[in-house]
Amino acid sequence: MTDIHINVAEMMGGGYDDFWRFRGRYRIVKGGRGSKKSTTTALWIVIRMMRTPSANTLVLRRYFNTHRNSTFAQIQWAINRMGVGALWKATMSPLEMTFKPTGQKILFRGLDDPQSITSITVEKGHICWCWWEEAFQINDESAFDKVDLSLRGQMPKELFIQHTLTLNPWSDKHWIKHRFFDSQDNPNVMAITRNYTCNEFLSDADLALFEQMKVENPRRFAIEGNGEWGISEGQVFENWETKDFDVDAMHHDYVDYGECRYIERFGLDFGFSQDPTAFIHAMIDTRKREIYLCNEIYKTHLLIDDMYREIKALGFDGAEIIADSAQPGTIAELKKRGLFRIKPAKKGQNSVRDGIARLQDYHIIIHPRCVNAIVEFSNYVWAKDKMNGQYLTVPVDEFNHLIDALRYATEGLGIKRFSW
After folding, report:
1. Annotated active-site residue in 96, 133, 134, 224
2. What integer is the mean pLDDT of 1-17?
């Protein structure tokens, strides 16, 4: 194979010199949008593997089906960015990339199929590097430990075992913060924060969006812009948890007189550019006073046709959907498209306060795939009085799009008590 000459510094830009050279076992990067954490990791993997003929890489996400449009596409981008596409072979089944001159592989797996990870092997070389993308979604620290322990054994001199975790720092309660960021005296750990200011490739339009976010959504800017930990102090909801559950089985869980145990509800909150369109699917057990959040849609720049297609793709186009009444025209257009049972929420005086009280009266279980719901419940907090710092009974108007959709969806459930 002829030599390949790549100017890494020019391709990568600044801000990641220490990251690039670190050889310890744990390398963690938290950062906001545009911080280059994922693109830099993808470039590092491709370059390092081409330099190290016996190295193989495992790429992990919470759910396997999220790889194709994220990590898989990101590594393809890195390969094309370096102009070495002819040297790599990408396959969709199995989902992997092979460096053709040596047979080295980049393997993609999900924690929703543990067997595919624990039984993994390669024909040539060793699996020594592991990239955990969107690591905030890994709620169970023991799942990380199992994979960590599976990467072991004596390595050739040129290899080293390393886990790279990239994440948006949505909550300071996450185990990653306590394990890797709160103690900085472990030479095997590099835990760093990066943000958009180290990304010299951003356009003026990109930078303008951050400036707009800084003014209009300061708490979101602190996390998505500056890469700071989301502070969960003053949370509106403390009555929730993240847990796997079988949604299909819930549809067949019957109680007395053949009635289904759960009430199914759907809510929709409209957005477009900065604010996302948010759709929530909930199953409610009124006897046990439990709300299960099963599916979500959370996307910006959705046009009316896009909204309809997204909801139809989940199979809920025939459902009764309670939508934000502030946009009657959008509701009418969605009804024309095929959401025949969509109707506006019954907003009124104190509707936000009453909706919060209603949700506080239930225990809320969020399926791990509802990532944005987890983010919102982690960061939805009470406002503070600017004079004395005391919490008010009014929430900050941020991190609430799915929560608003859930308020609409649960109209009519009633309120047994108030928390204030």
Report:
1. 134
2. 74
